[in-house]
Q: What sequence folds into this?
């Protein structure tokens, strides 16, 4: 098995993630792409969407929007304009941002900043809902595994 790749997710405010991954999937300018160890070198623009990092025994989900990614055979560096762990998304703040962006677009349909803000808010809400679904699915599975089998008569 190939050595895991080094992954760094960096925003203007912080290093959001630093670790080693068996696989990474993220949105690029030409659509989603995946990176395994040994990937061909490339650079591309980061689009708005979900970045998924698979480690040996865990998965991490992040919201990303804007920036650049550099891929080498043994590393991935994402310089994101905006990035946030999906589990940290606050749906109330996202809804407020969505409403502000929608109002701005109603006043001026050509407002590119408002259109980008609306796109980010809609993706954040979608990813938050997917995270809730994943959490409930894991909880349901765990409760079924922990319950003793029912006796049959």
A:
């Amino acid at each position: 098995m190939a050595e895991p790749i080094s992954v760094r997710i960096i925003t203007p405010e912080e290093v959001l993630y630093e670790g080693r991954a068996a696989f990474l999937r993220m949105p690029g300018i030409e659509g989603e792409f995946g990176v395994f160890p040994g990937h061909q070198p490339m650079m591309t623009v980061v689009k708005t969407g979900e970045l998924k990092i698979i480690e040996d025994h865990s998965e991490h989900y992040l919201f990303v929007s804007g920036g650049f990614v550099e891929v080498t055979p043994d590393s991935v560096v994402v310089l994101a304009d905006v990035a946030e762990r999906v589990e940290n998304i606050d749906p109330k703040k996202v809804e407020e941002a969505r409403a502000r962006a929608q109002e701005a677009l109603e006043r001026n349909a050509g407002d590119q900043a408002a259109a980008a803000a609306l796109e980010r808010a809609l993706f954040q809400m979608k990813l938050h809902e997917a995270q809730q679904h994943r959490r409930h699915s894991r909880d349901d599975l765990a409760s079924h595994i922990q319950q003793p089998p029912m006796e049959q008569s």
Notes: The CA atoms of residues 144 and 150 lie 11 Å apart. The longest helix spans residues 112-146. Strands lie at 5-10, 15-21, 23-28, 31-35, 42-45, 49-54, 59-72, 75-85.
